[in-house]
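Lecture 7 notes: from sequence to structure.

We start with a single chain of 207 residues. Read the sequence below before looking at the structure.
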Amino acid sequence: MIIQAKRLPVIAAALLLAVILLGLAIGAGWTETADRQISHLLSLRVDESDPAFIAFMQAASWIGGGVPRWIIVILLCGLVWHWCGPRCAIALGGASLLSNLASSLLKLGFGRARPDLIDHLDHQTSFSYPSGHATSAAAVYLLLAWLAPPRWRPFAWALAAAMIVLNGFSRIMLGVHWASDIAGGTMLGAAFAMLGAWWTDRHRIPA
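Now the structure, written as tokens:
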């Protein structure tokens, strides 16, 4: 791993604290100007974009949430089981489930309203902070990269970066999230990915 396994829980704890602090900053209105500037730059342009591009953004968002997300997680659990055994599969599935639960609880705790700059181009029923799509993308694909065999690791890291960026941009462009929602969700997901990587590594080494 790039980061020593024993440091992962400390970094994960720092990320979780950062998620809470960012949520408090959002509640105090400190991110409003930056959030609105970024949303004006991205979501308003999409509202005037080619329908094919909007459909692509909607497809990217669809893959990152709901039933498609869990189908992908199940398939990836099977893949990492093949790579490094059942403990890796449990780590990936557990990180995905627990990060999703944490995101849902934090949404209820902070109760942030969705953006109101354009008509939402994706159906939403929950609060805004942190983004569940961003949380899931970071948790699943970062952990997948950590668990990948050395020969597949460069591709896995590239996939993780692509999925995190694509999920984040699509949610802002579709008018359903602020940029700070994406930042908080990405940090939250990364924290659970690190905990999953630490748990897996910890049990690889005989006591």
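The CA atoms of residues 16 and 188 lie 6 Å apart. Keep this in mind for problem set 3.
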